[in-house]
Amino acid sequence: MASTAPPAAGAHDARFFVRQRVGRLIEARVFGLRSLEDVDAYSSAFGDELRRIPLNVAPILCADHRPVVIYSQPVTDKLVEMFQQLNARLERVAILAATSNATLVLQLQRVVRAAAYRNRRVFSDRGEAEAYLGAALGTPELQRMRDFLDELVPPSRREVAGN
Fold first, then answer.
1. What residues pair up with 12 in beta bridges, in sequence order?
2. Which of 95, 107, 132, 137 has the fewest Cβ atoms nearer than 10 Å?
């Protein structure tokens, strides 16, 4: 079974968590955003984490949306606004969606296009997301990102995935 235990620091609830544990890597995992209030809470959690990082440091975001099924149109519109606000602060962003969820991948690609930030990309392939962020991360941050993404992989599949 996948681990969804609350992190030691950062914001966490049944809808999402956002945390910064190593260097400038921010980890976000979304389980579901069903209302505008959910997106507001998600945005607020980002603000809390970003305030902990000095302004002269450009954070890297790994946003794991693999547990999400789909977003409503009002939620996607609000996500566009949120992403636009984060554009100036984040150096690079990888959004990961489940390979089996082509609809969500397309939806997130549309949101990313609308937010208009060339360093934010959507991936359905974990290895591609790791390579994209890995080009900007140091070794400890890269290992933490891999550990973060492994947290959602059931133990029986870790050996198959080579992790």
1. 17
2. 132
| 3-state secondary structure at position 153 | coil
- How many Å apart are CA 120 and CA 87, to the nearest integer? 8
- Look at the chain and report how many structural domains it folds into: 1
Nearest CA to 26 out of 139, 160, 148 is that of 148
Is 106 within the bounds of a domain?
yes
**34: CB partners within 8 A, 6+ apart:** 15, 72, 75
- Strand, helix or coil for residue 121: strand
For 7-26, write each residue's pLDDT tens digit.
Answer: 444 455 689 999 999 999 99
Tokens of residue 102, six digits: 């082509």
Model pLDDT for residues 44-59, shown as the tens digit of each residue? 999 999 999 999 999 9
What would the two tokens of residue 91 be? 């150096």
Q: How far apart are the first and last CA of the chain?
A: 16
Tell me the two tokens of residue 127.
């290895």
What is each CA distance from 30 to 21, 27, 58, 69, in whole angstroms? 17, 10, 22, 10
The domain that holds 89 is classified in CATH as 3.30.750.24
> Which residue range(s) make up the domain with 118?
11-152
